[in-house]
Structures are given as structure tokens and as C-alpha cells.
Amino acid sequence: MLAFLLTLGALLGVVVVLAYAERKVAAFMQDRMGPTEAGPQGSLQAVADVLKLLQKEDIVPAAADKKLFKLAPILIFAAVFAGFAVIPFTPDLIPAGIGIGVFYLLAIVSLDVIGLLMAGWGSNNKYAMLGAMRSVAQIVSYEIPAGLAILSAVMICQSLDFQEISYQQGALMNQFPGMEYDMNWLFGIEALGINTTTVGGITTWNIFRAPILLVSFVIYFIASLAESNRAPFDIPEAESELVAGFHVEYSGFRFAVLFLAEYSMMVLVCLVAVILFLGSWNTPLPNIGPVSLAYWSTGIPGELSGILWGVFWLLSKTFVLLFLQLQLRWTYPRLRVDQLMHLCWKVLTPVALGVVLIAGIWRLLMI
Amino acid sequence: MNKAIKQHNGFGYVVKSLLSGLSLTWKHFKNARNRRTPDYVSDENYFKQPDGMATLKYPYESIPVPDNGRYRLHNEIDDCIVCDLCAKICPVNCITIDSVKATEDIGVTSDGTKKRLYAPTFDIDLAKCCYCGLCTTVCPTDCLTMTPVYDFSEVNIKNMVYHFTNLTPEQAEEKKQLFAKQQEEIAAAKAAALAARKSNQ
Ligand code: SF4
Ligand code: SF4
């Protein structure tokens, strides 16, 4: 229960920051100013918006399938929120440390699609229905390259446990039960003979341990944009030409919950990207001879320093990725449906399959 | 083949153009530290300014209006001879003028024209006005002018109708009565004169 509340609180905090950042970043990239009135530099704008949405009338269309309509936003948000359960925040803080975290995450986040269909169907509106179909088609398609990219990282790490994957990417590797005698080699290749187990830092991040994962990272990042309905893959929403997709009929706080789910999804996919590819809560600073930067900037697991450093590194990496997501939104035009499918099935999926193959071979080199 | 219309494609080109897009938005993001300042049009940097955010926080800061800016209309009613030309030329019919003849000359305008009419109504509906300036052009006494004031929004749209008349309704009624009385007197005098002529014959 405590973990639930903590995660919910942290998530809401991050989402409010993100919603504000999105407006400011968008404004700055378009030579505008963004919110300026509510609070210093408009920083309370997101809060004000939430309050405004809370006051709005809760409209349920007369001919809608009321049960599905009301349940859908809750299901969508719950599906995304449940994904946070297996995200490790620090070396020893993880809401639910189950051994098959990656698998669980992929499974539970897919529930999202059911929620979208429920929302579209329940609204009893052609536009909502078509919007839902578009969202579902896109999300289901992009789960394949995303899944393959994650698979390649899992193959390199030989684990479905997010916490184990995190430990593998840092100087604390040998402190994880079951990995006391494992070693990290430069680029993961033992034949090079450079042992990086205690060097840590960026040299043990997955994208460095097996540089092929850099490709998977890019694939995963692109696919995750599509999964969280972010531009340039925001075709389900396409607010400028379709006036929103599956959520046209939603108003007030239900609408807010749908958007909360979208923003939570952005945070979640970035967290997963950081954990699988960018060293999780590990510091990027390596130990260099007697200068043990990695140990200093990781703290001691279980103590306050370990918690603070862990949260700091995890969040700062996540915020970099989130910023990139925002920047992409304000840089690239929206893709057409056929271009979207072309990218997914003819480009990302084959490349991801190739990466899985190479990752398998790489793993052979690593042992 | 013309290089300009040659279709570029291929992985390298795509990546290059994607990255150049990113660098463009990043440049704008970085420049957001600078901001336009409310400088007068004669300022050297007036046209160089939007290197960064181009927005001004409007009610708090605004670009100075040129001295001869032509925005809100003003009528110097004391100079108006109530000739109705402005109401006639207005393309959107937003000027309403009623006139009452005076019993005698009521003075001269600042350019020496004699005034013979009162204006119990002189309304300009600035919500309809399209600021074409035609009315100011035809005004024979130059009493109708455009001022540099452009910020005059109102909560109630009725307040956008500007009343320029300097007569209260009572005064207007009084002038009307006076004129009617004068007409009656003239008519009576005429009738008397006619009767006198008839009886003389
Ligand atoms: S400026 Fe043009 S539109 Fe406005 S009152 Fe004069 S003639 Fe009419
Ligand atoms: S044109 Fe000028 S003088 Fe004539 S009625 Fe209009 S404001 Fe008065």
C-alpha cells in the first residue's frame, strides 16, 4: 500500500512537471513564451488546469454504452499505472520485485489496448470508433518492434528481472544475490581481456556492454513513441485534423484521466528505456584507478545516499529522454497511416529481428 | 536531371534530414533566453529582434504606436457642422447622425465654417468600424480624426458605441421645440402677411 501511494504520488508529480515542461518546451521551440500568468513563470498552470477539469460537468452521451464508457479511462490508466509496479527506483527500492518484471510489464501495458477499444466502442460515435481502431492498430503493430528490441536487451542480460538488469549495468554488480562471481568485460567481449566489473559507470551500461543494443535502443524509442501516442505517431489523436480520436466524447475529469494515462505512458516507456539500455539508476561516471567516481556517485545501497543517488540518476536520464520526446513532437510532422505501417513492418521489425540475432551471437561472445 | 527536384531518399539522407530538424528546434529552444523588447519602430534593432521569443507580454508591455497611428475615431463635436458626409460614405454604416436645425447661427468652427445644425445624436459604433478612414477623408472641417489609441476593448459590447454629441436629450428636445416654435412663428407671420395682402387688394 505504501509503495502504491508513493508511486502514485511520484507519478503525479512527474506528470505535472511534464505537462508544464511540454508547454514551455513547445513554446520555446516555436519562439513563443508558454504559460506566464499562473504562478511564477506560469508554473502553476498545470495545477490550475487540473482544478478546472475537476469542475467541469461529467457528460455521458445518452446513447453510449454507459458501463464501457465509464470504465474505459480507469482501465487505461490502471493498465499503465500497473506497469510502474516493477520499475526499480533505487538499488533497493522497487514496488514489486518480481523475477519476470519485463514480461509482466509488456503484458500489463498491453491491456491499454482493451481500454482504448472500450472507450471507442462505448462512446457510440463513428469518429471515436475509428479513432480507437487507429490507436489499436498502431499500438498493436508497434508492440512488435518494441518487444523485439526489449528481447535483445533481455538476451544480453539473461534476465527478466528489472532489478537484476539494473545491477548488471553498474559497479555494484557483484552485490546482487546470484551474481557474486559474474564479470563485465569491455564491450562484453572477454577475449579483449579488459575487466570492467569494478569500473562501472558508462562502460557497463547495456548500450556499451553490447553496442548493438544502441540500435535496439533507437528502435525501442521510436516504437515507444508510437505506443504512447506521441507525435510524430499521434495519428489516433491528430487533434488538428480529426479533433481527437477515441476520446472525443469524454469531458471533465474522465478526459483528464485519459491524458494522465498518456503522460504516465510517456514516463513509463522512458523509464523502461533507461533501465534496459541506459544503465538504470547507475551513474554514468566510471571508476578511474584510485578515483572511484562510480562508487562515490552511487552511494551505499540501502542507505539514504544510495536512495538519493539512485533516484537522481534514474530521473535525470528519464527526463533527458522525455525532453527528447517533447522535442520530437515539435520537430517532426505527423506520419500518415500507411507510412506508419510501412515504418513499423518494413523497417523497424526486420531490423529488430536482425538485432535479436546479433544480440544472441554477442551473448555467446560474452560468456 | 535537375538537381533541385531530384528526389532524395535512402537511409543516410533520411537520418541527415531528421537530425537537421532536431538541431533547428534545439537552436530555437536555446535562443529562447532572448526575447523581443518593446522598441520603437525607429530603433536600430527593430527588425533584428525576434532572435529568440517573438512574443511580448501584451498588457504589460507593448510596441509603441507610431505618433500618426490611425486607430480609434474621435470627433471634435464643436467643430462638426453635421453635414452627414461621414455617415453617407461609411461602408459599414456605423455612424448614426440626427440633426436639428438651429434657430440662428450657432457659431463657427475652428476653420471658420458657420454652424447651423445641432447634432442630438452622433454615434459611431466602433465595434462595426473597419478603420478604413474614409469618414475622416471626407470630413470638410477635419473634426473627425483617427487617434493612436488602439487598446479599447470593452466587456459590454454596447460600450463600443461612442456617443459624441454634446447635447443632453433635454437640450436636444428644447432645441427642437425652439426650432418648431420659430417655424410656427414664421408660418404665422407668413399667413398674416398673406391675409394682409389679400385684404389690401
Ligand atoms: S473609419 Fe470607415 S468604417 Fe469606420 S466609421 Fe469611418 S468610414 Fe466608417
Ligand atoms: S463629415 Fe465631419 S463635419 Fe460632417 S458630419 Fe461628419 S464629422 Fe461632422
From TrEMBL, chain A:
Keywords: Cell membrane, Membrane, NAD, Quinone, Translocase, Transmembrane, Transmembrane helix, Ubiquinone. GO terms for cellular component: plasma membrane. GO terms for molecular function: NADH dehydrogenase activity; oxidoreductase activity, acting on NAD(P)H, quinone or similar compound as acceptor; quinone binding. It comes from the Bacteria. It is an enzyme of class 7 (translocase). NDH-1 shuttles electrons from NADH, via FMN and iron-sulfur (Fe-S) centers, to quinones in the respiratory chain. The immediate electron acceptor for the enzyme in this species is believed to be ubiquinone. Couples the redox reaction to proton translocation (for every two electrons transferred, four hydrogen ions are translocated across the cytoplasmic membrane), and thus conserves the redox energy in a proton gradient. This subunit may bind ubiquinone. It catalyses: a quinone + NADH + 5 H(+)(in) = a quinol + NAD(+) + 4 H(+)(out). This is NADH-quinone oxidoreductase subunit H. InterPro entries: NADH_UbQ_OxRdtase_su1/FPO, NADH_UbQ_OxRdtase_su1_CS. It is found in: Cell membrane; Membrane.
